[in-house]
């Protein structure tokens, strides 16, 4: 017989993992949308689009750290 004891996962840990996964997915979508807006906005010159996106990405990274850092 095996010495392995089946242990149910901690519901709180599963909820935390789901929350982090959901936040990561939503922040990635926000980054993608930010890049698309920067590239397609008539008010943003093509050479400025990457700069605009970089600033947007930094703001998203701040939110990322607020939610996911211990």
Task: Draw up the topology in text.
Layout: H1 11-40, H2 46-68
Written overview of the protein:
Helices cover 76% and strands 0% of the residues. With 70 residues, the chain is an all-alpha fold. 1% of the residues are buried.
User: What's the overall geometry?
Assistant: rod-shaped
How does the major sheet shape up?
none
The sequence of SSEs as H and E is HH
**Rg on CA atoms, Å:** 19 Å
Give start-end ranges of low-pLDDT stretches.
none
Helix content: over 70%
Amount of beta strand: under 5%
Distance between the termini: 40 Å
**Annotation, overall tally of beta strands:** 0
Global structural class: mainly alpha
Summarize the structure.
With 70 residues, this protein is an all-alpha fold. It is built from 2 helices and no strands.
Please describe the structure with a list of short key phrases separated by commas or semicolons.
mainly alpha; about 0% strand; about 70 residues; rod-shaped; 2 helices
């Amino acid at each position: 017989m095996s010495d392995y004891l089946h242990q149910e996962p901690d519901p709180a840990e599963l909820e935390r993992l789901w929350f982090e996964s959901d936040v990561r997915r939503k922040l990635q979508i926000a980054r993608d949308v930010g890049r698309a807006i920067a590239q397609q906005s008539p008010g943003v010159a093509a050479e400025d689009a990457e700069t605009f996106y970089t600033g947007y990405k930094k703001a998203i990274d701040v939110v990322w750290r607020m939610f996911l850092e211990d």
